[in-house]
Structure formats: structure tokens, C-alpha cells
Design a protein that fits this description.
With about 325 residues, the chain is α/β, with parallel strands linked by helices. It folds into two domains: about 5-205, Alpha-Beta Complex (inorganic pyrophosphatase (n-terminal core)); about 210-330, Diaminopimelate Epimerase, Chain A, domain 1 (Roll), CATH 3.10.310.30. Helix content is about 40%, strand content about 20%. The model has no long low-confidence stretch (mean pLDDT about 95).
Length: about 325
Amino acid sequence: MKEEDIQEIQELLSTPKKIIIIPHRSPDGDAMGSTLGLYHFLKKLNHEPLVIAPNEFPDFLAWLPDSDSVLIYEKDKENIAQKMHDAALIFTLDFNALHRTGEMEQVLSKITAPFIMIDHHQKPDDYAKFQFSDTTYGSTCEMIYHFIVRLGFENLIDKTIATCIYTGIVTDSGSFRFPSTTSTTHRVVANLIDRGIENGAIHNALYDENSYNRLQLLGQALKNMKIIFDKKTSFITLSQKELDQNNYVKGDTEGIVNYGLSIKGIVFTAIFIEHRDENIIKISFRSQGSFDVNQFARTYFNGGGHINAAGGKSYLSLHETVAKFEEILSKTIIN
């Protein structure tokens, strides 16, 4: 972000305002951590911030500070749309194209207030007046930390803000395993620990508090895993029937896709999850090394993301989607 942009944003934030903060649809740890971290920061500057999520976020993130203040657009569209129109400033975090908000795009595209985009995905759209867009960062939460520092308010980062920021860093870095984790990432985390975060407790809240149903669903997913050894690929399917049989709730499938990369010799993996209420197959892709799942998702499955982590979707049936994937895979070179 250019210095003149920082100066203009400092001016915008110099007087109290109604500010809306928006994550992408089906928000994950980075989306919720960054929006709530920014929310608590803006409250310290005496603004009136409001986080509006397009739809519900997973239960395993409900412990985040003030997560109960988040408004869910799908629950009260008309009133929440009015709040967005009344705002003087809009932050969009962890996405860079308005269609990632689902139905909210129709409202956001008509808002005249300036937008500030903070995001680390490739190929941003140009809807925002101010863009902090950088694919070299492993998480939007790490970008929020640097954004606050560049504004000159590092001293305002307290335990609450640090807790939110750490949550997004640890989830989007795969607990610091992914290549996007840099020495700077670790220095940021060290500063967050100095602010008093309970990093062990955060990790336990994110990963170690499983329900019986979630573990049963994980077992089903692993049972469904297929391996294509000559393509160094694995994939998992979960049907709507299997979700229902295991009393699925939002967040139960989080992280399951990563099991496919734990197999020796596998460099590309995917999970295909049927959601009949949306008439869609939701897809997550992961890879190791140089295989670009962002390009794969963009080319074949209406998606995108990062080189080693991306998402997509299909409007075919689960069976047809997997057949399409296998056909594409047969013509794909994976080193």
C-alpha cells in the first residue's frame, strides 16, 4: 500500500465513523480473525464498527472475542443492507472480488462509500478505492497486523486484538507448516505472544475440541479417500447423505482435505462435498511444491485461491463432478 494511501486512510480514521467490516461467504479462521481483530482496533479509535458476515461462521470460531456481535446477512437482509448503505467506510477482508460475498454482492455493488480491501489472494478486482493486496502474505490477519503498524497504532494492539490476529495466522498457515510462513510471520507471532495471547489455548480451541459427530464424519471421509498413485493425487468425497448421517454442522469438514497430503508421495489432493440445499458441490484443493491449484481451480472449477490452497465449485452431481475431475487429471502433468 502506497504511503499516500496510508495518509488518506489515517485522515479517514481521524474522526469517528460508522464502519462496516465484511469477510467472504463461509468465513474461515483468517476471515473471522481479521474482521474481529480490525473491529476491536477500530473501537479503540472511537469508531462504530460492525462486522457483517454473508452467512454463518463455524462453531469452532464462536469463542473469538465479540463473535456474538457479528451480524449475519442471510438472517435479516433488508435491515442489514440498510446498515451497509448508512456506513461511511467499508472494509472487505480476506477476499478481493465482491461475488465472494454471495447475495451481498447486489448490495455492495451499489454502495457509494469508499472501500478498503485487505487481502492476499491473486487477481484482485478493482472495486476498492484503497487496496492492500499482496499474495506474499500467508494470511490476511498478518496483513491486518502490518496495516495497524503502518497507521502508527502498534501500541493499540492488546491481547484481544492479538488473539484474533493469531487465530487467522495459525489457521491459514496450517499451524506454521505452509511455505507462505516466513521469518516475518514468526516475528509477528512473537509480538502477539508478548501482548499476552494464550497460544496453546487458542490452538486447543481450534483443533482439539472435536464433537463425536465430527470424528465420525472424519472417519467416513477417510474411508472414502481414493488414491491415484501415477498422478500423485488423492481425493475425498462426502455426499449429502453422509453429512446427514453424521449430523453435520458448519465447520465439521474444516481441515479434512489436508489429510490427503499426509500420504507419502502425494502432491495434489481434493475434497468434494455435496450441498443439496445450494445445489452445489463445494471443492477444496491442496498441493505441495510447484503444482498450482489456484490455476487448476480457476481453469476447471469456477474457483481460485493460492498456489498450494484453493477452492472451487461444481453445479454437476457429485458423481459427475468426480468423473470430470478424473478426466481432467488424466491429461494433467503433476511433477
